[in-house]
Amino acid sequence: MSRRTSRPSRQAAPQAAPLRTTPEAPCPCGLPAAYGDCCGRLHAGTAAAPTCEALMRSRYAAFAVRDAAYLLRTWHPETRPPSVDFDPAMRWTGLEILETTEGSAFHTTGTVTFRAHYTDGGRPDALHEKSRFVRHEGAWVYAEAVFVD
Predict the structure, then answer these.
(1) In the chain, where do the E strands start and end?
(2) What's the rounded Cα separation, in Å, for the pair 34 and 26?
(3) Residues 97-115: pLDDT tens digits?
(4) Residue 59 in 3-state DSSP?
């Protein structure tokens, strides 16, 4: 998941502090599990995403908890930005997986089409994207957005 916005860029704001999410809190990715048992394991590096959908969910959760290190670690080196900028006014509020193609343990590529809901300064909005994932050095990584609405 890349972060895109259609509004004009603002003055550079100070980097937002990570949001505190406890291991017992519901996972931001939307699955019925606690953060520590779901995406928190991937963020901590104690587990790897077995599918591109699992990686997509964990990257969404990383945006929600503002885990820049995980986002950069799971971004393909050819498309990885030097840093991740979080907008302090933005809060991710829900994820809908609309479609997946390939991306299982038996594939080397896959796509996930999703809608990520957020509020920006309290105003609700959504990001609709089809993301492409590839295996890099044996692990799933985000490669690029195939399309963005």
Answers:
(1) 90-102, 109-120, 123-136, 139-148
(2) 5
(3) 999 999 999 999 999 999 9
(4) helix
